[in-house]
């Protein structure tokens, strides 16, 4: 059998030193790596000049001419993978992701051993290989499957419901079936929505031996507006709540009602009533505007040119059959 090939893809913005470290770690992978796509999201810190100076034939650079946001950057990266390259898998990560040298080989090996898999992602640590889990990259195990890991601690992977775009890999066939990441999300939540789409037809797994380090500034929980103390970050939560509602809507009406209710009863209520909440009035406006916009937000899913095939049946139908 011909060895499988992988395109790694990084979206970067003004983090040149971290980008250099991330790229070096990717190029040091022991097996399967064929290309590296780098989407430069209008960086102004010398990233453009650095990328233009590289002469490695494996590297494909895309300089954006407008601010695409993280979501638009990953949309463009997967589009380039689908339209310009012929590799079997695409492996996505931020510019502050430092994978271990064998991280990719473990992802591919598990996928080849389990061809029914839709996506695989690494176990992500924060700051260093010995650091705590990176909380923003921790995804929930699928209900009614996690109990077996209490019995068999030698399981090579844990089934998860979705994944962030920090060391996640999926196949060309999957891109053809579900399309591209939703660029209109701009920032936050595009990874969850996209891997939810994958998991609707094939399952996702966190491969335990595949390790990546996420060198984000802080190890914070995702989307915690109540605890947010940086006024300059609040604009991001407009997208968080809008995107969260659409992601839930695409799962089911029941899930949308649940997510909307949690946002009102937990986030809005805590922001209103909890003592010493920073920027209280501003946060209340962000939550209500974001939720309202989410009810009407429904951008079309795009496909890479020449890369589209019919979906297989949704697994949710099979789940409902089992529950009936």
TrEMBL record:
Q: Does the keyword Glycoprotein apply?
A: no
Pathway(s) annotated for this protein in UniProt: Cell wall biogenesis; cell wall polysaccharide biosynthesis
Q: Which residues form the Glycosyltransferase 2-like domain?
A: 9-136
The identity of this protein, by name, is Glycosyltransferase
Q: Could you state a single Gene Ontology molecular function term?
A: glycosyltransferase activity
- Please give the family membership noted in the entry: Belongs to the glycosyltransferase 2 family.
Cross-referenced InterPro entries, in alphabetical order? Glyco_trans_2-like (IPR001173), Nucleotide-diphossugar_trans (IPR029044)
A Pfam family that the UniProt record links to this protein: Glycos_transf_2
UniProtKB keywords:
Glycosyltransferase, Transferase
Q: What Gene3D superfamilies does this protein map onto?
A: Spore Coat Polysaccharide Biosynthesis Protein SpsA, Chain A (3.90.550.10)
């Amino acid at each position: 059998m011909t060895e499988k090939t992988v395109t790694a893809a990084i979206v970067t913005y003004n983090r040149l030193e971290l980008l250099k470290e991330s790229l070096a770690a990717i190029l040091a992978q022991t097996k399967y790596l064929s290309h590296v796509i780098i989407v430069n999201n209008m960086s102004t810190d010398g990233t453009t000049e650095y990328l233009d100076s590289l002469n490695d034939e494996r590297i494909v650079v895309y300089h954006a001419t407008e601010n695409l946001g993280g979501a638009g950057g990953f949309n463009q990266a997967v589009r380039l993978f689908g339209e310009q390259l012929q590799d079997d898998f695409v492996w996505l990560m931020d510019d502050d992701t430092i994978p271990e040298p064998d991280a990719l080989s473990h992802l591919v090996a598990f996928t080849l051993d389990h061809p029914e898999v839709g996506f695989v992602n690494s176990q992500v640590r924060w700051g260093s290989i010995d650091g705590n889990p990176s909380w923003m990259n921790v995804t929930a195990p699928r209900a009614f499957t996690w109990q077996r890991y209490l019995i068999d601690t030698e399981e090579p992977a844990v089934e998860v419901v979705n994944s962030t775009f920090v060391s996640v890999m999926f196949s060309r066939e999957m891109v053809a079936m579900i399309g591209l990441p939703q660029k209109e999300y701009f920032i936050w939540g595009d990874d969850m929505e996209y891997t939810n789409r994958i998991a609707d037809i094939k399952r996702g797994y966190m491969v335990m031996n595949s390790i990546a380090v996420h060198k984000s500034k802080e190890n914070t929980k995702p989307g915690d507006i109540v605890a947010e103390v940086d006024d300059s970050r609040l604009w991001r939560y407009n997208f968080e709540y809008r995107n969260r509602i659409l992601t839930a809507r695409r799962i089911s009406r029941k899930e949308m009602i649940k997510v909307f209710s949690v946002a009102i009863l937990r986030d809005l209520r805590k922001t209103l009533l909890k003592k010493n909440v920073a920027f209280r009035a501003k946060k209340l406006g962000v939550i209500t505007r974001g939720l309202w916009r989410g009810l009407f937000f429904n951008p079309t899913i795009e496909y890479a040119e020449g890369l589209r095939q019919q979906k297989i049946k949704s697994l949710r139908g099979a789940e409902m059959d089992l529950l009936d």
